[in-house]
Amino acid sequence: MALQNTVLGTVTSFLTSRNALFLVCGWIAYKLLLALWNLSPFHPLSHIPGPKLATATYLPEFWYDVVKFGRYTKEIQKMHEVYGPIVRINPNEVHCNDAQFIDEIYAGVGRKRDKPLHQVSGSAMENSFFATSDHDHHRIRRAPVAKFFSRTQIARLEPQIQLLVQRFCNKLLACAGKDEPINAQTAYSCFTADVISYYSFGESFGFLAQDSWEPNFREPMYSLLQTVFLFRFFPFLKHTAMASSWFVRYLPRDMALLIRTLDTDIPNQIRKTKISTDAGIVRDRPTIFGELLNSDLPPEEKTVVRLVDEAASVLGGGTDTVSWTLSVMTYYLLTRPDIMSKLTEELRAAVKDPLSLPSWTTLEQLPYFGAVMQEGLRLSYGISARSARAATEEDLVYRGEWTPKGSSDAVKVEHVIPRGYGIGMSNVMVHHDETLFPDPYSFVPERWLDDSMQRNRELERYLLSFSKGSRMCPGMNLALCELYLCLAALILRVFPHMRLFETTEEDVKYDHDMFVPLVKSESKGVRVVIV
Ligand code: HEM
Questions:
Q1: Contact at 8 Å (CB) between 32 and 480?
Q2: For residue 512, which phi and psi values (nearest 5 degrees)?
Q3: Any bridge partners for residue 396, and if so which?
Q4: In terms of Cα–Cα distance, which of 37, 62, 39, 40 is closest to 51?
Q5: Quick check: CB of 185 below 6 Å from ligand 1?
Q6: In this predicted model, what pLDDT tens digit does every residue of 110-164 receive, in sequence order?
Q7: By the 8 A CB rule, do 518 and 512 touch?
């Protein structure tokens, strides 16, 4: 019997290992065949130039984005130097480095644009409209949220933002004389998180009300974003993130707070809102959940799980983007006294009392302030990594010119990007395009003004910070309202007392990305002291 068992065990394990070997060989053969297909002249993208390995496989993208972390954008830039303005960067995606093609890729609502599945699989908020691939489904999901962030709605919120701006400046000024430097982005993210939470959820997180700048959501948000490239290749790993709530008590304080907010507080708030909505109770201050639950979205779009993802994407989208833009502007303004004094002069003429600022729409009209804002947005990029769109009902025809390296003659380039295939651009490349922005790494607000010192609308077509078209940032009005009000108050009240602390241009200069721009890993951020 023992012998029989041993023989049976050996045969089973032989069969099992044979099966495993068979599976592995089968998988390798499948991948090889797929690579051959991708390289073949029959593939719909075969006419688009690009490196052979990237044309055949996702290996280069995996290597630079996952293994070397967030460094594929720079490789794509190098590919453009060799292959021209249109490059095949992976078997099914094309990248464009010509800003004249922006309106074709990021087209308006009337022209359908999906987001490629490979791209949206990176998002942990898979039920949000941000991560919704299909154009029509995205439109349905986006509509009620976009309405909530319209210009009129934001104007109603403005008094509360003004209040938080002044509270924020008071808190910064109260740090006068302290030796410990303040990480500007951490401080700014306390302000932006309080604004977005008050507006979206009806209650502020209260980061400005606490004594210090910690805890806040900056670090945990960045930690969550770190998974974006890995999830693109292994989307099933997203489900392991759900386990994080089981060991929340062992996590760092700020990460635990974020997990608790997303896993407990927000779902509870949605349930409470649902009960009052069902009972016909009208709240005096609308919340994003109230808006979604009252909208004509079908019931399957109103589940708690989906609304939590929507809340997380608004929270994620609305916190660090604004705080990073403010940090970049802080650095440039504190290192450029010429720009600072010109701006201060313009603001002093328009603002009688810095404790009671004029409206955001009034501040927006100040030409030099507007120019500084545009330049700050240009050098903070919004999303630095590529964001692709797939036209599903039309082929896109690219026509342009390109001067290959080492040649003095421009050659004409024409390519058809077949429907269904993704084509994207990277803000970091467009914003450093020398033909549009001469001396692109310098902070030059004047480039946004025309000869009569008014806004240069023509150039604004190439500012991609909020993206363009049907999937552009729905939070743009809120972001601009925060940026104008906060920067005006900082300039008039805080910057005269603020000094940079061991901060250089390296601390704001793009190095790699995680979807959002990142500086060199060893940077300690933009740090300031109040004197
Ligand atoms: C300076 C501030 C901001 C910048 C530069 C910015 C930038 C962007 C960009 C470039 C996109 C397009 C992403 C893509 O192509 O996949 C986007 C989308 C988005 N942003 Fe913002 N954003 C900012 C502030 C905000 C705020 C305050 C909110 C809060 C409501 C927000 C919420 C979103 C959402 C929900 C999306 C997804 C839109 C969609 O897929 O239709 N953002 N943002």
A1: no
A2: -155, -175
A3: 417
A4: 39
A5: no
A6: 999 999 999 999 888 899 999 999 999 999 999 999 999 999 999 988 999 999 9
A7: yes
